[in-house]
Recover the amino acids of this structure.
C-alpha cells in the first residue's frame, strides 16, 4: 500500500530526470551535440481606464505571463523529449479584488527507444499543478478550492508509441496516476470510506496524442489530447484537451487562441471549458 511519503517521493521523478539530462548534456562533445533546446517567454497585457465616460463601464487591468520550453535528445536509438509549460495571469476589474485568470505547471518527459519501425517502446512521466491559491467566486462569497501542489497530478507510464507522420505522435501505455492533496482533499478522497484520503493512486491505461501543424509560415496549430482510464473504474476516465492556434505577426508580437477542455469527475462532474484570445509579446531565449 502506498503511503503519502512514497507518493511524494515519486513527485521528484520528473525534476530528477531533468537534472540527469542537463548533466549528460554538459558531458557531450561540442561537435554535433545530441541536445536541442527551446525556451519562449510571453507577456500579454490589457488595460482600460475610464473617466467621465458616458457609455459606462469599469477600469480593467489584466496580464498573463507564460514560459514554454522543450529539450530534445536524439542519439542512436534514443529519443528523449521533455517539455515545460508555465503560465500565470491575473485581472482586476473596477473595485473588485484581483482575481486569478491563468495558472499552470505542466511538466512532461518521454523517452522512446527507436527500433526502426513505426511502433516503438517508451517510458513517460508527467506533473500537473498550479502556483497560487484558486477560488470559486460563488453566491456565498470567495471560496478557496485549490493551492500550490494541492492538488498535484502525477503519472508514470510505459507502453508503445506510434508516429505515422512527422506532425502527429500518439502513444498508449499502462502505469500509475497519483493525485496528491493537503487541505483540499476532495480531489483524492474516496467518498465510499469513512476515512478522508489525501492521496489517490490508480493503475490505469493512458493515451496521449500530440499534433503540430504548420498551417502557414506564420501560423502554427498545436493540440494535445490526454486520456487516463483507471482499470478499477473506466467510467471515471479523465480526458484533457489543450489546443492552441498561434499567429506570429512579427519577431516579437503574437496572437494566440487557446482552448482547453477537461472532463474529470473528481474535480467537477461537468465538462470544464477554458478559452482565451490574447495579443502580446513573445521572446525566444533559446
Amino acid at each position: 500500500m502506498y503511503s503519502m511519503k512514497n507518493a511524494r517521493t515519486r513527485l521528484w521523478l520528473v525534476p530528477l530526470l531533468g537534472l540527469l539530462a542537463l548533466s549528460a548534456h554538459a558531458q557531450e562533445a561540442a561537435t554535433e551535440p545530441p541536445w536541442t533546446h527551446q525556451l519562449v517567454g510571453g507577456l500579454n497585457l490589457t488595460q482600460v481606464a475610464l473617466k467621465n465616460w458616458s457609455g459606462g463601464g469599469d477600469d480593467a487591468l489584466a496580464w498573463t505571463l507564460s514560459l514554454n520550453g522543450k529539450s530534445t535528445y536524439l542519439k542512436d536509438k534514443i529519443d528523449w523529449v521533455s517539455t515545460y509549460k508555465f503560465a500565470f495571469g491575473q485581472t482586476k476589474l473596477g473595485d473588485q479584488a484581483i482575481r486569478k485568470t491563468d495558472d499552470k505547471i505542466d511538466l512532461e518527459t518521454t523517452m522512446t527507444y527507436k527500433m526502426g519501425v513505426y511502433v516503438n517502446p517508451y517510458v513517460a512521466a508527467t506533473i500537473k499543478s498550479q502556483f497560487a491559491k484558486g477560488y470559486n467566486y460563488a453566491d456565498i462569497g470567495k471560496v478557496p478550492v485549490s493551492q500550490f501542489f494541492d492538488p498535484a497530478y502525477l503519472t508514470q507510464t510505459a507502453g508503445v508509441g506510434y508516429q505515422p507522420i512527422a506532425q502527429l505522435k500518439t502513444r498508449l501505455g499502462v502505469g500509475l496516476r497519483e493525485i496528491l492533496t493537503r487541505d483540499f482533499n476532495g480531489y483524492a478522497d474516496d467518498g465510499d470510506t469513512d476515512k478522508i484520503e489525501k492521496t489517490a493512486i490508480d493503475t490505469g491505461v493512458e493515451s496521449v496524442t500530440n499534433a503540430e501543424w504548420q498551417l502557414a509560415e506564420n501560423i502554427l496549430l498545436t493540440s494535445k489530447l490526454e486520456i487516463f482510464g483507471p482499470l478499477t473504474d473506466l467510467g471515471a476516465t479523465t480526458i484533457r484537451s489543450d489546443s492552441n492556434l498561434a499567429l506570429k505577426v512579427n519577431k516579437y508580437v503574437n496572437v494566440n487562441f487557446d482552448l482547453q477542455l477537461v472532463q474529470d469527475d473528481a474535480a467537477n462532474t461537468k465538462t470544464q471549458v477554458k478559452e482565451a484570445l490574447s495579443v502580446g509579446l513573445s521572446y525566444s531565449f533559446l
In short: The two ends are 43 Å apart (CA to CA). Residues 4-27+103-284 form a domain with the Porin fold (CATH 2.40.160). The longest helix spans residues 13-27. DSSP finds two helices and 14 strands in the chain.
